[in-house]
Write a structure and sequence with these properties.
Order of helices and strands: HEEHHEHE
Number of domains: 1
Structural class: alpha/beta
Strand content: 15-25%
GO molecular function, one term: hydrolase activity
Keywords: Glycoprotein, Hydrolase
Protein name: Calcineurin-like phosphoesterase domain-containing protein
Shape: globular
Helix content: 25-40%
Length: 111
Amino acid sequence: AEATLRFGGYYAARARPGLFVVAMNYNLFQDGDFWIAANNTDVAQQLPWLRDVLRQVRALKAKAILIGHEPSMMQPYQRYFDAIIEEYADVVMDEFVGHTHTEDVCVVTAA
């Protein structure tokens, strides 16, 4: 966890037996980031890492909760992220994000 936290600001940790918390750095996928937009690349390789973490969580017959700061990503990252979440829908219990500056709740379900 410490290596990925230092490298890209994201990590996974076991919260309790059978449950992992996966902290995403969604800031790396925002359209306001010139470097990301100009290079069109997952600079920290966070999405392949997420897929691998969820694969490991599934192998352990455990569940994962994702947390992050911002609720969405620019394309094509959002499509890639959505595909990962769909692939591991049996593993991902919830995702909690903030940054909206409003007192609301948005529930997104699989189509």
